[in-house]
Design goal:
Layout: E1 4-10, H1 19-23, E2 28-30, E3 36-38, E4 54-60, H2 63-72, E5 78-83, E6 89-91
Antiparallel strand pairs: 1-4, 1-5, 2-3, 5-6
The structure holds iron/sulfur cluster (SF4).
Amino acid sequence: MSKKYKIVHDRDICIGCSACASVCPKHWFMEDDGKSSLYNHIKSGNGEEELLGSNQNPLVEDFEDNMDAAESCPVNCIHVYEINDKGEEKELI
Ligand code: SF4
């Protein structure tokens, strides 16, 4: 069984430098509010606060691209978790 990964984006910390969207345009894009987002993300919070919460894109198989995005982030607001067969999560970055 292939490994699964979860990507978490803490948008509160994002400074909108666009590095993640540059190195991993398949998964990341810049929003109108100047910050980045994951395609197909799940927004937390509600109303106008929605974009300020952490974005989670669970069970991503495209691991390397998202690690590149996380490593490019100057404020470390992209986190990558490995999920094992038991559903246990291990933070990689
Ligand atoms: S690299 Fe980090 S700070 Fe820059 S836009 Fe992406 S998430 Fe935001």
